[in-house]
Amino acid sequence: MKIEIVTPDSTIYEGEVSLAQLPGLDGSFEILNHHAAMIAALKKGRVKVIDSKKDTLFFEINGGVMEVLNNRILVLAE
Predict the structure, then answer these.
(1) What is the pLDDT, as a whole number, of residue 45?
(2) Fewest CB atoms within 10 Å of the CB: 13, 17, 62, 68?
(3) Which CATH number applies to 2-77: 2.60.15.10, 3.40.980.10, 3.30.360.10, 1.25.40.20?
């Protein structure tokens, strides 16, 4: 699946991933390939992604929102 992490200033990361873990308001949650469509609010924390090379990457955010639709994750982060 594809993920894009965007801030008001720039795109932090864009690429193919097998897993994304996000800091939801009620706790962290994971998105896997072919996840159902959803929208969620995010709190300050770490976004973890496992890319197509099986490398684990972390990105710090100060909150935001995310959308999963058609096997694509869009994170609008602060």
Answers:
(1) 97
(2) 62
(3) 2.60.15.10
Using CA atoms, how far apart are residues 43 and 27, in angstroms rounded to an integer? 9
Q: What are residue 26's DSSP bridge partners?
A: none
Q: Which residues contact 29 (CB under 8 A, 6 or more apart)?
A: 21, 22, 40
- Coil, helix or strand for 36? coil
d(CA 43, CA 64): 7
- Model's pTM, two decimal places? 0.92
| Per-residue model confidence as pLDDT tens digits over 49-74 | 999 899 999 999 999 999 999 999 99
